[in-house]
Amino acid sequence: MNQYLYDGTADGLLSAIAWILEEEPDPEKVMLRERMDTLFEEGFTIGTDATLAESLFFRLKQFAPDAAHTLYSFMLAEKEGMETSLLHYVSLAFKHGDQVKGYLTHPAVRDIVYIAKKAGRELHRMKGLLRFEKLRDGAYLAKMAPDYNIIHPLADYFSRRLRAQHWFIYDVKRRTAVRWNNGSLQFGTIEQFTTPAFSEDEKKVQALWQAFFKTIAIPERKNPRLQKSNMPMKYWKYLVEKQGE
Amino acid sequence: MDTFAKLQILSGAARYDVSCASSGSKREAPSCGTGNTSSSGICHSWADDGRCISLLKILLSNDCIYDCAYCVNRSTNPMERASFTAREVIEITLDFYRRNYIEGLFLSSAVMQSPDYTMESMVRVAEALRTEEQFGGYIHLKIIPGCSSELVRKAGLYADRISVNIELPSQASLQRLAPQKHKNAILEPMALIGREISTSLVERKVSRRAPQFAPAGQSTQMIIGASPENDFQILRLSQGLYKKMNLKRVYYSAYVPVTADNRLPVLASPPLLREHRLYQADWLLRFYGFSAEEILSEDAPHLDESFDPKTAWALRHPEFFPVEINRADFATLLRVPGIGVLSAKRIIAARRFSLITYEGMKKIGVVLKRAKYFITCSGRSFEKPDQPPALIRQQLLLSENREALVSAPSKQLVLPGFFA
């Protein structure tokens, strides 16, 4: 069984997969791992080529848009140690097209689809659970700490929704941030974060929301278990309505 | 009265309205405005009763001239009355929307002065949001029975979804508990909305610029357990509404006693399990190809409390089973207890690659707890074949009870806004 190594970056991973699909007669018999530079490491290292990586993604998108979407969601999870599964998945996707997602009895397909689903689910959840706060200069700021690196698609989503607004989203866990202003998105990293001053009416609007949140529940039907299963507690930290609980 | 106090009163009065769906509409954000809609719908929070919050659900006013026995806002109920101004509703909606608290606005109202006056005030809020504020988010407007058809048409042009509440499942109950509401005043606008929606769909096929009319469709709601109708009557009513009026959703709300009235039953707690079973049966009507007459009959007009309606149907029809997983078509798979739309699709997708075994079923994520009594995989059955239904019944009950002892599953309904 042939073994290959790559440099650990997303581009490296995709270009390695592209290279293997091109050169190997049977990619499903091949292993791919991140290079650790240990003494007895075996395997041939494939160089990183960003254009190769990009062209692989676009070819897959043309051939099997659903499978490409799964690949994209999987990459958001930044999962380590699943490179071989991903290689086999992409290889099968080029063989079977979008029908590959039904091949859940194949271990590689199942693992990749499972992780991609989890990342996709968190992205959908954050579209609802993200909370913006108004700053003194009229811009809005949202903080979050998601399990997966979803800031890119999330920013894309809000750029279509809150178009006329000037806003920031800050990922506290990864220290990455995005800014939307005058029709363009800018991504960056923040080393030291200081919370800016809020606008004067911010506390008032938050109090309105907290009051609404309390009264909209029917007291006779109280069900904290259901609430927690729909809205896990790990997200409560940045929810205005769940402060002080 | 300040906005804060009004919000407390008017959201508390709106909480018995069940619908919170924000799905089914695809609206782009205006270039200099705020908000779009997402066709899958988005939940923004979950309240202490576990129900999702996706819309700012409020009444414009709770100052009602009607005296419906079941309603918290009935005119003879001594409670604090309040009314929002249009401006206040607009400000709160936008303030909440910009902070991503909500998908949009759900606006209902008690009947102030007259149905026309009330409906006009509500439509004015929606109109101002769309035209003055360039608001592109979701709007759900309640239609006040008895208002003019002109106002219904206007409401449909600004809102994503509109709904007329049927309130009670029969004319007799309506007369007894809500004497000022009439069946025709409820059904006429429903039929009108149904016609307008289909006209607009046809026009939009011709020209994409034709105005949308309630693109997320219409829904309704009825109260369960405040009047003597049985489940069979209720399901047949829903079936008629889906087929004849083209409704997107019928919501059922377990009766919560909010006012004392000797025309109403006295209940220890709201009939949540009955409500849950009705929703399950409703799903069978809409997504599983069942008819109300298959689920219930005149002789057995009540849904089984201990089994979901599909399992109950399967136990009554042993001749239909076992179903062979590797050959059965989609419609047949859907009839197996425990196999839903998702599982049936997965089974069909996986069959393209190989025969499905027992282990394969687990791998693709099909829950076998109930299904295992009703299926074979390539001729192999999981349980002893040809067990009499009475025995299966017992085993199912046993496995349910064992789980109940361990985890006490919640009988409360989740309102899945995604499918609305």
Account of the protein in words:
The complex is a heterodimer of chains A (245) and B (420). With 245 residues, chain A is of the alpha/beta class. Helix content of chain A is 44%, strand content 14%. Chain A has a 5-stranded mixed sheet with strand order 4-5-6-7-8, covered by helices on one side. A 3-stranded parallel sheet of chain A has the order 2-1-3. In chain A, a hairpin with a 4-residue loop joins strand 6 (167-171) and strand 7. In chain A, helix 2 (50-63) crosses helix 3 (65-76) and helix 3 (65-76) crosses helix 5. The mean pLDDT of chain A is 93. Chain B is 40% helix and 10% strand. Chain B has 15 helices and 11 strands. Chain B has a 6-stranded parallel sheet with strand order 3-4-5-6-7-8. In chain B, strands 9-10-11 form a 3-stranded mixed sheet, with no helix packed on it. In chain B, strands 1-2 form a two-stranded antiparallel sheet. In chain B, a hairpin with a 2-residue loop joins strand 10 and strand 11 (380-381). In chain B, helix 2 crosses helix 3, helix 3 runs parallel beside helix 4 (149-158) and helix 4 (149-158) crosses helix 6 (183-206). Chain B is globular. Residues 405-420 of chain B have low confidence and may be disordered. Chains A and B meet through helix 5, strand 4, helix 6, helix 7 and helix 8 of A and helix 1, strand 1, strand 2, helix 2 and helix 12 of B.
Secondary structure topology:
The complex is a heterodimer of chains A (245) and B (420).
Chain A: E1 3-6, H1 10-23, E2 31-34, E3 44-45, H2 50-63, H3 65-76, H4 83-96, H5 107-129, E4 132-134, E5 140-144, H6 151-161, E6 167-171, E7 176-181, E8 184-189, H7 202-215, H8 224-230
Parallel strand pairs in A: 1-2, 1-3, 5-6
Antiparallel strand pairs in A: 4-5, 6-7, 7-8
Chain B: H1 3-12, E1 45-46, E2 52-53, E3 55-59, H2 86-98, E4 104-108, H3 115-131, E5 138-142, H4 149-158, E6 161-163, H5 171-177, H6 183-206, E7 218-224, H7 231-244, E8 249-254, H8 272-287, H9 292-295, H10 309-316, E9 323-324, H11 330-333, H12 341-351, H13 358-363, H14 368-371, E10 375-377, E11 380-381, H15 389-407
Parallel strand pairs in B: 3-4, 4-5, 5-6, 6-7, 7-8, 9-10
Antiparallel strand pairs in B: 1-2, 10-11
Helix pairs in contact in B: 2-3, 3-4, 4-6, 7-8
